[in-house]
């Protein structure tokens, strides 16, 4: 009996030990669950990371689809509506600087400049600035239109300046430099550039009208034509017309010129994302031609018979340097220019003149004096 009891006691003790072990196992499992719940690197966090990564990828896909859609839509829209391409050529919806009262050049420190308006055709008005040579600055103070008209009779030569796109008669910074060198400088805003629809034909007609207006006032005095950027296309159009009539100007100066508008459009930084797109010419360049926009200076130089000076900066990113050099090579071989001075002046990239800062060159007065064979005593 005792033995059995002892055996029972032994069994009871063994069972108690098992129960204790089971309880300890449950406790450990409970601790594991608690640790898993409080572990920031657990499976729940991993699922969250995967969810966020998936959301990010979806957003990137949506952005990519939108960008791709816009990329495809732009050439299609331009092809369907070629008038948009015309606006991109002329940039007449851009006015830099914007907050300028063009009626009051004196507000910009141009106290020797007169603002007035001419009417090349019925219903067409163009704004004009006439800046007299800086040596006449003091005399020009508070003078009226009659005085400015008579000032053309002075011995100083005249430059008709044709600015580029997105510009106005205010952006003629070169005019101040040229005025300081003893020139009258006349510049104007092409029709449609400050509202409306500009065209190559209209711009050239306006330039011709103003040229004749000036010529009537100066007689046989030298009259030079200076074009910058898109204005070089207008300038070569104008000079070609004058030469065809047998009345060439005294000289043509082209600053940052291109060969023709198709080559310039293809080389422009804005076209970089589409330049290698199949059908680029059909989508973009043919749309320019459809608007009757050519500005074919490379053709015009074969009909020009007056001295030609080309100025171009090697670091010009808007109109690449090679286009200006190519135009010079064509002009140098032109039969109509045979016997006339044709000169090309490059400006090294180290000078940083880029597209529109050649006027800062301290060599410019000497370049003009040498080319035009006239001294500049008022530097």
Automatic annotation (TrEMBL):
The keyword Signal does not apply. It is a single-pass membrane protein. Gene3D superfamilies: alpha/beta hydrolase. The chain crosses the membrane at residues 60-78. One of its GO terms (biological process) is monoacylglycerol catabolic process. It catalyses: Hydrolyzes glycerol monoesters of long-chain fatty acids. Its EC number is 3.1.1.23. The keyword Lyase does not apply. Residues 157-242 form the AB hydrolase-1 domain. One of its GO terms (molecular function) is phosphatidylcholine lysophospholipase activity. It comes from the Eukaryota. GO terms for cellular component: endoplasmic reticulum membrane. It is an enzyme of class 3 (hydrolase). It is found in: Endoplasmic reticulum membrane. Keywords: Endoplasmic reticulum, Glycoprotein, Hydrolase, Lipid metabolism, Membrane, Transmembrane, Transmembrane helix. Belongs to the serine esterase family. Lysophosphatidylserine (LPS) lipase that mediates the hydrolysis of lysophosphatidylserine, a class of signaling lipids that regulates immunological and neurological processes. Represents a major lysophosphatidylserine lipase in the brain, thereby playing a key role in the central nervous system. Also able to hydrolyze oxidized phosphatidylserine; oxidized phosphatidylserine is produced in response to severe inflammatory stress and constitutes a proapoptotic 'eat me' signal. This is Lysophosphatidylserine lipase ABHD12.
């Amino acid at each position: 009996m005792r033995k059995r009891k002892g055996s029972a006691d032994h069994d009871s003790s063994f069972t108690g030990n098992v129960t204790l072990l089971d309880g300890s196992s449950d406790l450990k499992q409970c601790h594991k669950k608690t640790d898993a719940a409080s572990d920031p690197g657990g499976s729940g966090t991993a699922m969250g990371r995967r969810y966020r990564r998936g959301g990010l990828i979806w957003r990137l896909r949506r952005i990519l689809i939108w960008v791709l859609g816009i990329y495809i839509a732009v050439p299609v829209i331009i092809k369907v509506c070629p008038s948009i391409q015309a606006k991109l050529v002329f940039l007449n919806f851009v006015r830099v600087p914007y907050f300028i009262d063009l009626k009051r050049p004196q507000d910009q420190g141009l106290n020797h400049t007169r603002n007035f308006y001419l009417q090349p055709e019925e219903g067409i008005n163009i704004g004009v600035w006439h800046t007299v040579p800086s040596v006449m600055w003091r005399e020009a103070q508070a003078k009226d239109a009659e005085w400015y008209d008579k000032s053309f009779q002075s011995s100083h030569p005249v430059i008709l300046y044709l600015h580029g796109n997105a510009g106005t008669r205010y952006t003629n910074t070169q005019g101040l430099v040229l005025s300081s060198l003893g020139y009258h400088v006349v510049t104007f805003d092409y029709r449609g550039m400050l509202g409306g629809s500009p065209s190559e034909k209209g711009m050239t007609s306006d330039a011709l009208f103003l040229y004749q207006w000036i010529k009537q006032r100066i007689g046989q005095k030298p009259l030079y034509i200076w074009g910058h950027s898109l204005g070089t296309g207008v300038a070569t159009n104008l000079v070609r017309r004058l030469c065809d009539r047998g009345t060439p100007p005294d000289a043509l100066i082209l600053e940052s010129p291109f060969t023709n508008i198709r080559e310039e459009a293809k080389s422009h930084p804005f076209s970089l994302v589409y330049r290698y797109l199949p059908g680029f010419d059909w989508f973009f360049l043919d749309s320019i031609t459809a608007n009757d926009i050519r500005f074919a200076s490379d053709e015009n130089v074969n009909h020009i018979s007056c001295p030609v000076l080309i100025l171009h900066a090697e670091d010009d990113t808007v109109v690449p340097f090679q286009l200006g050099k190519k135009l010079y090579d064509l002009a140098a071989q032109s039969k109509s220019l045979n016997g006339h001075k044709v000169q090309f002046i490059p400006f090294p990239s180290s000078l940083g003149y880029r597209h529109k800062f050649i006027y800062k060159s301290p060599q410019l007065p000497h370049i003009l004096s040498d080319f035009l064979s006239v001294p500049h005593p008022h530097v």
